[in-house]
Amino acid sequence: MGEPRKHHYIPVFYQNQFTNANGLLWTYDRCLHTYKELPPKSVCFEKDLYALKPKNAPRDRRIESLVLSYIDGVGSSAIRELLSRKINSHAIQDLAYFIGVQFNRLPSVGRAVSQMWSKVGTTVMREMAANVGRMQSILERYTRETGESLAVSAESMVEAVRGGQVEAVATERPFLQGIFSHAEDIAHAIEQLDWQILVAPSVTGFVICDSPVVVVPPSGGRAVGFLVPGTVIYFPLKYSHCLRLGGPGPSFSHRKVSKEKLQIINYNIAANSERFVMGPEKAQLASVVKHSESSEADLTPRFTTESVDGSAGPMLKMTFQPRRYFYGKGSQAP
Questions:
Q1: What's the pLDDT score for residue 161?
Q2: Hey, is 277 helix, strand or coil?
Q3: Which of 325, 271, 320 is nearest to 298 (CA)?
Q4: pLDDT value at 2 more than 80
Q5: What is the model's pLDDT at position 1?
Q6: What average pLDDT does this structure show over 298-318?
Q7: Residue 97 predicted with pLDDT over 70
């Protein structure tokens, strides 16, 4: 009963890296078109986002209270070590995994995964309803395996499925399981890239948003992904530092960026946001929102799903949708 229901998809410790002297964040809401100075605990959360919701049982919030809280602690330590220039393989691996989890824990990813699994379920149901005999055998197998007899005939089930009266709805499990399994794939991929810690000019810094893993494809390209050649990935670490991943590695270095390049990076961060763009100073935040044309919500779905033919039958593919991107001289990401 005491477990928290506010599940932050942008961890509070991470938001705290970008607060002002009052411990607050200026937050622009792309849906409400408002600027508010808020404490990190009140931004970027959904109630019971990571809770398991078993039927006829209390909600299980241990993924948030135990698993994600531990991963957040590991991520916080890794960021602290890398910023202090304590470069070691463990810190890099820990931060890579944290970034993978951060990318997959967003509500938009949850919606996309649920949509994909619902389509899978609908496809499976249609195959089950190919004829009455197949449906009858499936109902009989269900009774044998569960001991429950469904009060429905095979004929009525086939009719309901074919008539679109039955809809497959995904539970929260595919999303929650995918957070961690997909994080491992992302971590393995980005560990092989060139890692650069970008240092901002002393008079300014990096903003953040509610989708802080920013994947910028090469200029003119339509394919978006972590391993698309020419891609640059940004992940702000604190107001004064940002991680840049790009090109073949593995390698690790620090470098300063100019005010102009920092602005381009901030424009990409703002454009990648789903609803919230955040920073310690209102004037800078307003300038970034304006020049990145991020005042209105971007209604383009972040992912699309489509049916493709596979060796084992129809499969569903989830694809990145391109966003708006900003480049420096020579159409290169800074």
A1: 84
A2: strand
A3: 271
A4: no
A5: 45
A6: 70
A7: yes
Residue 1 domain flag: no
Task: List the alpha helices (DSSP H) in the chain.
Answer: 12-15, 62, 69-83, 89-104, 107-128, 132-146, 154-162, 173-190, 259-271, 282-291
Q: Compute the distance between CA of residue 277 and CA of residue 209 in angstroms, rounded to an integer.
A: 4
Q: What is the mean pLDDT of residues 88-113?
A: 94
Rounded alpha-carbon distances, angstroms, from residue 78 to 19, 42, 85, 239: 19, 25, 11, 16
Q: What is the enclosing helix (H) or strand (E) of 243?
A: strand 241-248
Above 60 in pLDDT, residue 155?
yes
Query: Looking at the whole model, is its pTM more than 0.90?
Result: no
Residue 309 lies in a domain: yes
Dump pLDDT digits (tens) for 179-199: 999 999 999 999 999 999 999
Residue type, position 263, single letter = Q
Domain count, the chain: 1
Question: Is residue 2 included in any domain, yes or no?
Answer: no
Both tokens of 156, joined, read 């009525």
215-241 average pLDDT score: 93
Cβ atoms < 10 Å from Cβ of 56: 4
Q: How far apart are CA 118 and CA 111, in angstroms?
A: 10
Q: Are 280 and 239 within 8 A, CB to CB?
A: yes
What is the distance between the alpha carbons of residues 208 and 311, in angstroms, rounded to a whole number? 42
Tell me: the pLDDT tens digits for 161-183? 888 888 788 889 999 999 999 99
* Residue 103 to residue 96: CA distance in whole angstroms: 11
**∠ CA(24), CA(27), CA(31), 5° rounding?**
155
Biggest alpha carbon distance in the chain?
73
Whether the Cβ atoms of residue 193 and residue 250 lie closer than 8 Å to each other: yes
Q: What span, in angstroms and rounded, lies between the C-alpha atoms of 324 and 294?
A: 10
Cα–Cα dist 291/271, whole Å: 10
What is the rounded average pLDDT of the residues 31-57?
94
State the DSSP H helix or E strand holding residue 217, giving kind and residue range, or none if neither: none
In a domain, 156, yes or no: yes
Range of the domain at 83: 10-331
| CA neighbor of 232 nearest in space, from 279, 285, 272 | 272
CB 205 within 8 A of CB 239: yes
